[in-house]
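Predict the 3D structure for this chain.
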Amino acid sequence: MNAKDYVEEILEKIRVQNRGEDEFIAATTEVLQSLIPVIEKNPQYIEHNILERIVEPDRQIIFSVPWMDDKGKVRVNRGFRIQFSNAIGPYKGGLRFHPTVNLSIIKFLGFEQIFKNALTGRPIGGGKGGSDFDPKGKSDMEVMRFCQSFMNELSKHIGENIDVPAGDIGVGGREIGYLYGQYKKIKGASEPGVLTGKGAVYGGSLGRPEATGYGLVYFLNEILSHKGINMEGMKAVVSGSGNVALFAIEKLAELGVKTVACSDSNGYIYDESGIDLEVVKQIKDVERKRIEEYPARVGRGEYHKGFRKIWDVKCDIALPCSTQNEINKKDAIKLADNGVIIVCEGANMPSTLEAQEVYRERNILFGPAKASNAGGVAVSALEMAQNSMRMNWEFEEVDAMLRGIMKKVYDDSSKMAEEYGDKDNLVMGANIAGFVKVADAMVSQGI
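Done. Predicted structure below.
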């Protein structure tokens, strides 16, 4: 069987077995189709049926999460943990608390995580988890009770050498703290390596909150510098207003880039003078309020309802840092018409396959998520290493290692893209670079 037929056979099986799981089907389609060149050159991957094995999770865990709200009413949410592949290390991937969470989204995120984690060069496998619980509008006590109930079940399936969750959308330092506190009560032991994204005073790593946003900009800079482009003086649009977006905006400013728009799930703000980052942090991080408060606080700028319209704002650099599928074909065309130079993904697969096709057709530089947003999980792996050694590195040490990791991610992805015939196709390059590491480990370890 040739490589193209083999890939199509596996994709057809995925479509049949996972009907209705659109996000998972899109993710596997994008990855597998880009792997055809490497499958052609490495027939052992067909012989060992690596593709069919790698698209099927090792374990899919779905569980009930009952909890009590502040009025004494018992509520129930659904919890997930997908342990996808531990070929090169323990399962590793975040927990997402958001009302849109379902099996398809968790599977797509877990599948992407396999290759993203492999790209970092750290010995970590791929997994993902979460719940359709929405922390927004909940009191601290409600969030705590939910997290404790969630961990009552999750604790049966994780461990510092088994599966190491982290944070994601809706799961920040507060939630990780409650989850870890309950894990310690259940296990009767201090095992800080079981979760990453912890507070620095109880085993967390300096630089972890900044890692994904900083890493995104380091990767962006690698792409542009290899093209001989200096980003100083450019304008950026950054969707989202969580850690990834805020620290990306911070690092962009250090490199001379002015961010003119950012968003939350309700709408976006536009400030031609440049977003006042400290005001946004106060609104979102400290007060946990909506971004629409921004214009009144700074006395300038505009607020627009509907966060998708943020891609109508003219910019040189677009960093989607919100959620999956936030840039569709229409949005991509608008970005292209407005002269965008590069799109670099801070969220997980925020550009649809149709949007990516527009980038290629219009010669827009593109940093795909599994490479460009790998900084967060890279520093999570560094946090695991520090926990194992019972020590902490200084922020500057962690940041220097992060820069080195992101450079290597770019170099490996670029090298594979060039080796397989399309030097500017970092989607293909990143997929192949991550896949080869995992596939070779699977071949070595047998069935």
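The mean pLDDT is 96.
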